[in-house]
Design goal:
Layout lengths: L29 E5 L26 H12 L5 E5 L9 H11 L2 E4 L9 H10 L3 E5 L5 H8 L4 H14 L3 E8 L7 H8 L6 E6 L14 H15 L5 E5 L3 H16 L33 E4 L5 E2 L16 H7 L1 H7 L6 H4 L11 H8 L14 H9 L22
Parallel strand pairs: 1-2, 1-8, 2-3, 3-4, 4-5, 5-6, 6-7
Antiparallel strand pairs: 8-9
Helix pairs in contact: 1-2, 2-3, 7-8, 9-10
The protein binds iron/sulfur cluster.
Length: 411
């Protein structure tokens, strides 16, 4: 797992990169910590391959405090307590309070179980939590609970949202788009408008952990969902972000250019950041153009430092390496931030700067995190010409399913 420990630089910084103009070479927008693998749910696509009990090698309370201090050296970045189920850690309120004291802006993603009591939510709020996110993967218990493998999980999700809002926490829903819920997506859009959230984060499945390549929707299905999200973003009372799908930025750009050409849009604005006003109410908002290792960092339950939770290549461990130095200077993180190194159609794409494709999905499918995004429907003109001339060949896949660069996975 750990394959890139060499560092280019010698001076791990202690500075504050400034949160106005973000420089992702210096600091991530977001750091996620997988507090524990322990969880009472058994979700079919679980990235963390969660299990009921805590791992003996988890970071201790003191190690977590050291990590939080190190993260604060990036500046007042956003810090997410993820899992497993973060509520399985008895020190979670204490750690939220400590992060708040340090000046981090914190969110938590508890599992939708009875552990998230009103009392616990109130304690988290009092400790300084800024936002709470829960997962909903279907518009009704039939889809959600089947996926989570525990009946009652859907109702707990709605209860946690309602209770959090009653005590003054801002709330977010996370949804994983995969084959199993595509037909329910329109109903999910409707449900989101009814549950009082400030933010809907829509994840596009990466086939890792318990998820298989055949669970991922097709590139065409991704495209349909992107357009639906764009339409919804015009009227929704919450902000929307597509995660593990930077190609949504390409669709946003295409739609806004088309609107300008047709005269439907006249104002000049930053197409990737406008519309992020609602979720700024709790100081978190959303990032622009974040990708694995590029504005993003993930620390596992045992302290391994990954470019994201979906790209399981370690660049170090917080127990032995300087987290700030790893982000800024490790070969892995620097390589991921250098889009001139990308391969295949992403390398010649006119949307390279705003997109770059999911590095995690490229890795999961091809074994090379610099390869083309395997689930993008866009074919750059330059790439078409290269294929015609015989200057390019679709990338070979790996694992149980082999996916050409822009083909659909098998039905
Ligand atoms: S080809 Fe690659 S860079 Fe271009 S839009 Fe698709 S995923 Fe993004």
């Amino acid at each position: 797992m750990r394959d890139m420990m060499k560092h280019h630089g010698k001076h791990p910084g202690v500075g504050h990169p400034g949160m106005g103009k973000r420089d992702f070479d210096q600091a991530p927008f977001l750091v996620i910590w997988e507090t524990t693998q322990a969880c009472d749910l058994a979700c079919k696509h679980c990235r963390a391959e969660a299990q009921p009990d805590r791992h003996p090698g988890e970071l201790s309370t003191e190690e977590a405090r050291v990590m939080l201090r190190d993260v604060r050296r990036f500046g007042p970045v956003i810090f997410v307590f993820s899992g497993g189920d973060a509520l399985k850690r008895p020190d979670i309120v204490e750690l939220v309070a400590y992060g708040h004291e340090l000046g981090l802006r914190m969110a938590i993603t508890p599992a939708t179980t009875p552990l998230a009591t009103r009392e616990k939510l109130q304690q988290l709020k009092d400790a300084g939590l800024a936002r709470l996110a829960i997962s909903l993967d279907g518009s009704h218990p039939g889809i959600h609970d089947e996926f989570r493998q525990v009946s009652g999980s859907f109702e707990h999700g709605l209860r946690i949202l309602k209770t959090s809002q009653e005590i003054g926490l801002s709330t977010q829903v996370n949804t994983v788009v995969a084959r199993h819920n595509l037909d329910d997506f329109e109903n999910l859009c409707q449900l989101m408008t009814e549950v009082g959230i400030v933010f809907w984060e829509v994840f596009f499945l990466i086939p890792m952990g318990r998820a298989k390549p055949e669970d991922v929707a097709s590139a065409d299905a991704f495209e349909t969902v992107f357009h639906r999200l764009y339409d919804l973003s015009a009227t929704a009372p919450f902000d929307i972000k597509a995660t593990a799908a930077p190609q949504y930025s390409r669709v946003v750009l295409q739609r806004k250019v088309a609107e300008r050409r047709s005269g439907a849009r006249t104002e000049s604005s930053d197409v990737l950041t406008d519309g992020a006003a609602i979720s700024m109410s709790d100081g978190i908002g959303r990032a622009r153009n974040v990708n694995d290792g590029d504005g993003f960092m993930f620390v596992s339950h045992t302290g391994e430092i990954f470019p994201s939770g979906f790209l399981p290549v370690s660049a170090g461990n917080v127990r032995s390496d300087d987290l700030v130095d790893v982000y800024r200077n490790s070969d892995l993180f620097r390589t991921l931030r250098d889009r001139s190194l990308l391969k295949g159609k992403c390398a010649v794409c006119e949307y390279l700067k705003v997109c770059g494709g999911s590095r995690a999905r490229a890795f999961a499918i091809t074994g090379d995190y610099l390869e083309s995004e395997p689930f993008c429907a866009h074919v750059p003109q330059k790439y078409t010409r290269m294929l015609e001339r015989g200057d390019a060949v679709p990338a070979a896949g790996r694992g149980p399913v082999s996916l050409p660069v822009f083909a659909r996975p098998p039905a």
